[in-house]
Amino acid sequence: MGRIESLIERAKKYPKRIVLPEIEDERVAEAARRIEKEGIAHLISTGKADKKKLVQAYYELQKNKGMTVEAAGKALDNPLYAAAMMVRLGEADSFVAGAAHTSKDVIIAAMQCLGRDRSVGAIFGAFFIEAENRPNGENGFFAFADCAVIPMPSSRQLSRIAISSADLLTALFKLDARIALLTYSTSGSAEGESIDRVKNAVTIIKEKRPDLLVDGELQFDAAIIPDVQKFKAPDSPLKGKANILIFPNLDAANITYKAVERLGNARAMGPTLVGLKTPCSDLSRGCSVDDIIATVALTSARVHLDKK
Predict the structure, then answer these.
(1) pTM score > 0.85 for this model?
(2) For labelling, which of 4, 48, 92, 307 has a CA lying 20 to 30 Å from the CA of 240?
(3) Is 271 part of any domain?
(4) Does residue 269 form part of some domain?
(5) Are residues 54 and 148 in the same domain?
(6) What's the gap between Cα 78 and its chain centre?
(7) Are residues 88 and 193 in the same domain?
(8) Which domain holds residue 67?
(9) What is the C-alpha to C-alpha distance for residues 295 and 290, in angstroms, rounded to an integer?
(10) Contact criterion met (CB below 8 Å) for 232 and 188
């Protein structure tokens, strides 16, 4: 059994209350049927919420920013905001959306309703990627970040993304994190702005978390293929066995995860949004029913960890 399937099985042991606000989407509806049948989560409908209560709570939350009750009512007509406010008020444990909305829409609703976790210092999206019959990473299993939120992360943001991704991988899957910060250069083979950002980020990570195994700048192949690492980066402590890949910008991350998923016949779970006060997850608008189910399980697992 792969790690994604194992996580789904684990979620059945502690099913959480999850809102799927896009239930009118055929894929979401089918995923909901399977989730309920298999006992992966307890699904909560936005239609059963007390809208007046949600509107008043959202108004109170945003009134210092010029929000009116009328505007709050219009905002709560959007199922994303209704779902996020249900989570904020404790009527659900989390929500998963994005099959029928853009990542931007999901992220803004989550930020406005759930708030930032200042201890993380950045909001970002992490994918867990599993490619069958591959020796790379953790037997074909990787974390990719940031694939959803920050177009051009600073060195400090890259460091926070890397540290939080490592902690998440270890907490969810009991794996030792091996972090590679990627760019188009390996060990000084080129020069450029993204290379400088990555190098600075590695320095920050080593200062803040000397317990973590990290290296950069590295090209993709030098990070995950030992034979290439020996040639390009013989001194790399990762030994070509990185299981967390941190990308220099959103273009590279988003394109790579989709290419790996579609051309490499890999399974992608997420992106789960990190850096909010309550865990929640986005979906790709190209997601499958299986993707939705896996992401609900991932979200439930994160909620379970937070409540321990």
Answers:
(1) yes
(2) 4
(3) no
(4) no
(5) no
(6) 23
(7) no
(8) 3-115+278-306
(9) 9
(10) no
Are 277 and 249 a contacting pair, CB within 8 Å?
A: no
Domains: count for the chain: 2
Q: Do 197 and 219 fall within a single domain?
A: yes
Quick check: is 10 in a domain?
A: yes
- pLDDT in tens for each of the 308 residues of the chain? 799 999 999 999 999 999 999 999 999 999 999 999 999 999 999 988 899 999 999 999 999 999 999 999 999 999 999 999 999 999 999 999 999 999 999 999 999 999 999 989 899 999 999 998 899 999 999 999 999 999 999 999 999 999 999 999 999 999 999 999 999 999 999 999 999 999 999 999 999 999 999 999 999 999 999 999 999 999 999 999 999 999 999 999 999 999 999 998 899 999 999 999 999 999 999 999 999 999 999 999 999 998 76
Q: Which residues sit opposite 243 in a β-bridge?
A: none
User: Do 19 and 95 meet the contact criterion of CB atoms below 8 Å apart?
Assistant: yes
